[in-house]
Every structure is written in structure tokens, then in C-alpha cells.
Write a structure and sequence with these properties.
about 160 residues; alpha+beta; six-stranded mixed beta sheet
Amino acid sequence: MLLRRFTEADAAPLAALYGLGSFAAIEKETGQMAGRFSLKPANSHGLTGGTELGYRLYPAFWGRGLATEGSRALIASAFERLHLDRVVATTMADNIGSWRVLEKCGLRRVRTFHYPDADLMPGAEHGDAVYELTRSDWTMLVNPAEIEDRRPGYSS
């Protein structure tokens, strides 16, 4: 066996193997790139363990339910397909749109933290919120009949 550093060429095979990585968000109606989603081992500042859900949409696509749709698809994949135990996310505490998306998806706010250099970005002085959803909490939230309804939004 040979061990080497990961390269760009490794990204797609690893995503297929683990179901983790970055995913393009494409608007169904137009085929336009709306942004990206990610599901990866949590290593962002303020997180301790779990698998991190992330997303970023272009402003033209805000307010259309795409962040909720994509997040729900990845959360379902995390628990059903990958059998993970905990999904976590962070958002700026004053980013109402993002924390509403996370709460619609079943995540709950567990704490707020502050970056050491909070003065670098407007709004950072209010801190960042950490959200989480455990497998057991997700199982209580989800209706098994709805699981199939969420799968078409996710394609590997």
C-alpha cells in the first residue's frame, strides 16, 4: 500500500465512497448554478465533533426554499444512507435567514461562541451560533413516509 496526500482527482471518488463532500446546487427549473452545499467532518471553529452541514447560495436564489430543500436532503442522507450520529452547523448569530433554515430542518441551537477577531466582519460581534441534530432527535422528527419524498433532491 502507498499513502500519499489527497489531490483534486480524489474528490469525486471519495464523495462517492463516503457521501461526503461539496455538492453543486442547481435550480431545477432553469439549470442555473444556485450555490453549493457540503457535508463533511466538522472542523470549523467552534465545532467539536459531528458532521458539518454547510451551504451558500447566490443572493438571487435566497428566499425560494432552496437552502431548506438542499439541507433536508443532505441531513436525510447523513442519517439514512451514511448512518451518522450527529449533524452540526454554524451561522452568524444575526443571520436570521440561516438560523431559520437550520431550525426548519430540525437542528436546534446549542450555544453561541465568539471568534477571537470578531471585529473583522460586520455582525461578528454578536457571535456565531452552533446548531445540532442527533440521529435520535431526527428519528423522532421524521415520518417514514416522507423519507422517500426527500430523496429526489439529492443525487450523488
